[in-house]
Write a structure and sequence with these properties.
- There is one protein chain.
- The chain has eight helices and eight strands.
- With 239 residues, the protein is α+β, with helices and mostly antiparallel strands.
- The strands form two sheets. A six-stranded antiparallel beta sheet has the order 5-4-3-8-7-6, with helices on both faces. A two-stranded antiparallel ribbon has the order 1-2.
- A hairpin with a 4-residue loop joins strand 6 and strand 7.
- The longest helix is centred in the middle third of the chain and has 31 residues, at 67-97.
- The radius of gyration is 21 Å and the shape is elongated.
- The model is unreliable at 229-239 (pLDDT under 50).
């Protein structure tokens, strides 16, 4: 076992010691139950505190799960539901368009690939791997998430205005084209749905694909109880 993997397993072991019955634990309890030495347990606890995964109550000398856990749990719960709901819609869209459809969940301002429905009748497939984290500003999905979950200051004003107005982001390079549309739940963007294909096949000028993608993303949002983009979009930065 490599040291890095061992460190991850030890950190996860410590986090797993907390539960509904015992949401607060002392350092001696963590040390005893983790099977680590006191110095090692304290070192891991400090690292987890720095990352917001543990919280320390100095008045009672007790640890509890930190605020970042809530964010990770919310992402996980949203991901599970949106993946379950989006699945058959994505499969149908992939069949109808004969293009790869990708669902990416919003995760800390970035997009993480959560489900892929591959083009059923193509000999050459363009398909990202599950769990792949997409560049926030270098992918259509990341640009969409940036536009609807932040003030958009990281984007050029004309790009921000266009993405928010069209509820669509595009990326075309020499190898592939991407069209991405937002998926909303409870007033917040939780995911993006994208069409991937060859540049000549997937672009804003492919109106049939743009319309089909937008309708499908809106259906998934409706099933999730999502809100309209104009409601959830943050105000544009002042000029």
């Amino acid at each position: 076992m490599t040291p890095h993997i061992q460190s991850i397993e030890r950190a996860v072991r410590i986090l797993g010691l907390f539960g509904h019955e015992e949401p607060h634990l002392s350092l001696p309890q963590l040390t005893e139950r983790s099977g680590l030495g006191r110095a090692s347990t304290h070192r891991y606890a400090m690292a987890l505190r720095r990352e917001g995964l543990l919280r320390y109550d100095a008045a009672r000398n007790l640890y509890s799960l930190g605020p970042r856990i809530l964010g990770l749990a919310a992402v996980a719960m949203a991901s599970l539901r949106v993946v379950a709901i989006a699945g058959h819609h994505m499969d149908r869209l992939a069949h109808d368009l004969n293009e790869t459809i990708v669902l990416s969940v919003a995760d800390g301002g970035a997009a993480t690939v959560a489900r892929v429905s591959e083009a059923p009748r193509r000999s050459v497939l363009i398909s990202p791997r599950l769990g792949m984290r997409l560049d926030p500003l270098g992918s259509a999905q990341g640009v969409l998430i940036t536009a609807f979950t932040t003030d958009g200051a990281a984007l050029a004003p004309e790009v921000l205005a266009r993405v928010r107005a069209r509820r669509m982001a595009t990326l075309v390079d020499g190898n592939f084209g991407v069209l991405a549309a937002p998926v909303f739940q409870g007033g917040s963007l939780v995911a993006t749905m994208a069409v991937l294909g060859l540049p000549d096949d997937v672009s804003e000028t492919a109106t049939d694909k743009v319309d089909a993608l937008r309708r499908t993303a809106e259906r998934v949002s409706a099933e999730l109880g999502g809100a309209d983009a104009e409601v959830v979009a943050p105000p544009a930065p002042a000029t």
